[in-house]
Amino acid sequence: MRRRFLSLALALCTLTLLTLSACTAENRFESSTALEDGYSSSIAEASADAANETPHGNALQISVGGKDFTAVLEENAAVRALAARLPLTVTMEELNGNEKYYDLPQDLPTDPEQPGTIQAGDLMLYGSNCLVLFYESFDSAYAYTRLGRIADPAGLAEAVGNGTAEVTFRMQTSENIPDSNGENKMLVAYFSATGTTRPLAEYAANSLDADLYEIVPEVLYTADDLNYTNGSSRANREQSDPSARPTISGSVENMGDYNVVLLGYPIWHGQAPKIICTFLESYDFSGKTIVPFCTSHSSGIGSSDTNLHALAPGADWRSGRRFPGGTSRETITDWIDGLELPRTTAATGIGTFDFETRTVMLNSGYAMPINGLGTYSLTGETCFHSVSAALERGVRLIDTAYMYHNEAEVGRAVRESGIPREDIFVITKLYPSQFANAEAAIDQALESMGLDYIDMMLLHHPGEGDVAAYQAMERAVAEGKLRSIGLSNWYVEELEAFLPRVDITPALVQNEIHPYYQENDVIPYIQSLGIVVQGWYPLGGRGHTAELLGDEVISGIAAAHGKSSAQVILRWNLQKGVVVIPGSSNPDHIQENTELYDFELTEAEMARINALDRNEKHDWY
Question: Which domain holds residue 135?
Fold first, then answer.
């Protein structure tokens, strides 16, 4: 039979989140009776069966025939290698009456066993490059490498059908999967002056297994306060005053735990109530996804959601949608099912910073330190001694590149450190001038550094032949020369064009990031793809470091913590989920740059640094 492979290769660890978003643009205040009556019946009927239960642990989502199934994965080399190639959308051909299969573009590591009875829902690797999904149980004499098993295969046979069936495989990393402590990483926050928005918020939280938080004003609104026909009513005065910020009673104590926030409100004179502004200005939403939702009788979304964007510039804002009174549960469910939002990795740990081990798990299955030493401008013996000093002081991440002309010195320092090779993470880069002969360039890097393998290789920046060079790095991963691969100086447009053309999702994207150039639109996008972000020039770069370290906001925060400005900037990056690689040849500065884990910036301090963004790039990349 003909077998066909269709790779979308968008990113590891992205998954369709069941999420709710809605809004409105009603040019008057919320009216309670009609909307409450309309919502109460439809939502109440759906609330009992809305929750979607998902197993804990390393999991794979399989979407086929309009249904989603979850496979709990094994812990083995084949699974890790497969994960690096996800997500995949493929057309499966029928092999026989028990299974569907497709060929992989590259061989995976194998550990075959003769399973005897195969159960419906088993996911196996036959040989080294044939992935098999079983939808009926039977006895087998063939040897397979076990990858995992669908927890509940009911309906799988009908979903795959009798002939070909398009299937999408994704690693499951959803916000609404509780972590090992049972904490939920999705929050539904809402304000409802008359109770109209409340049922919708409760339904969303229930169906998503999210935490629910009501934004309650310190002084509750009365009927007179909400009388929109009275120009001097409290609500009218607030909506007319750009600086109005009604005080909120209480707060979200653990806002840092959430990565997706659904934000609900009524529409007052075409905009969100000013208490929503208070809420947004009370926390640091950098890297979080915000989905606004609201209710009204008839009007559309207007500008009620987009006008809020400036209050949380570091967030990934999604478009909202209005729901009128009487909305059916089918309409709401369809909207939830149709939203695609980034997920964190509570289930797998991928992309999540571990501040105890000071590492992050990459989508390639390897752990990488979250702060290290950059070696740009370090050459000769200066480079060797700087890397040696860093390794002596506990640094385990070293960044170099072909164009730095110091790979040999970096490799010598690593080899002579006395530290086990597997404890040191080395990054290097291919320059565009090497793209045409990437295989030889990879071998040259290994030879220059005198290493058996390289932990991470990046393409230094986009250029002619970059896809072919990346494909050469993919082959080097299969050959064991490289463990992880990624990109440097790739932004949203470049990534959107590049990713569909390669098989292995980049494990890392390294870009210029510092308080004056924060990339608030780029970082959440990259992280939403399950790709770790690393920042070069974290302290501003040559010619700009003194200005950044002397910034009054940063130096003031540093004084409050008894830390240096450099330490505050590096900690700010880490709390945004950005790996840092400051460069230095000064052993004292190298030591200082490692002391980032005995203090934490508050939400307010993070917000103050976020406000320093000038979109001021300090290099041409």
Answer: 59-172
